[in-house]
Design brief:
Length: 150
């Protein structure tokens, strides 16, 4: 006896078909901006660069932020930062996410900058017990104070 004839004989309504919807990835991709005014100030880019080259050159002169830093666990020194490579400027909030150069940059060696990108900002701050936003703000105020001197 087929399933259809069984339903007809018993007077039971046919079960409804289950319609499966495609799962959404959660991210809606938007098209990149292709048209718009390209000004001389933006150097042909659609989005303004918000760069302060004088500040970046000044910030590179600072030593690495993690220089002479160590991680302590249970009163035992477990990891000491060793600076490798030249000092680079590292953005706390990426420029692609809208972070400008002012009060958003810290100076770190190439090894620390690479570690920041590998771990992510939150994990990096937690690991080294450091607040990058506060450090960037203090660097910016120090730059402004020194720039006002004659």
């Amino acid at each position: 006896m087929s399933l259809q004839s069984y339903y007809a004989k018993c007077g039971v309504p046919k079960p409804k078909k289950v319609v499966r919807r495609k799962r959404s990835t959660g991210l809606q991709r938007t098209r990149m901006k292709k048209r718009g005014p390209r000004t001389k100030k933006s150097h042909g880019a659609l989005f303004p660069k918000r760069r302060d080259y004088a500040y970046l050159a000044w910030a590179v002169g600072d030593p690495c932020l993690l220089r002479d830093r160590a991680i302590w666990r249970d009163n035992v020194e477990t990891l000491v930062h060793v600076c490798l490579g030249p000092v680079q400027v590292c953005h706390v909030k990426s420029r692609g996410a809208g972070g400008a150069d002012d009060s958003n940059v810290v100076a770190m060696c190439a090894a620390a900058h690479d570690e920041q990108h590998r771990l992510g900002i939150r994990s990096f701050q937690k690991r080294w017990d450091i607040d990058l936003k506060a450090e960037a703000a203090s660097l910016w105020t120090r730059y402004k104070r020194e720039a006002q001197r004659p």
